[in-house]
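Q: Given only this backbone (108 positions), what sequence would you predict?
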């Protein structure tokens, strides 16, 4: 299984590092390949009002799953929230948190 991974902005990378450490400890990395994608503040700062690169969009579409940390939304115009953009690009009507067990990973 491949999952597109956007670490986020601000505290996002720290949260994502801790989460990935937990995933590795649980053995999730034996079943999942995380594919980094570029989204968020650094993309907005380069003038991309969508906040995600074309390559990121293609990778998310190829993977079918996006796991992302918190993202900054530009203040005063210049771009929309990544969540709004993602819902529009992929015709999602809501953000949701999907949980499921992975084979070989012990869960309660």
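A: Predicted residues:
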């Amino acid at each position: 299984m491949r999952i597109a991974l956007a670490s986020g902005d601000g505290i996002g990378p720290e949260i994502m590092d801790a989460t990935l450490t937990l995933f590795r400890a649980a053995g999730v990395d034996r079943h999942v390949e995380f594919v980094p994608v570029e989204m968020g503040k650094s993309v907005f700062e380069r003038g991309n009002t969508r906040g995600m690169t074309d390559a990121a969009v293609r990778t998310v579409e190829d993977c079918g799953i996006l796991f992302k940390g918190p993202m900054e939304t530009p203040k005063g115009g210049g771009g929309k929230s990544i969540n709004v953009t993602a819902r529009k690009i992929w015709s999602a009507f809501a953000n949701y948190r999907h949980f499921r067990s992975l084979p070989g990973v012990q869960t309660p």
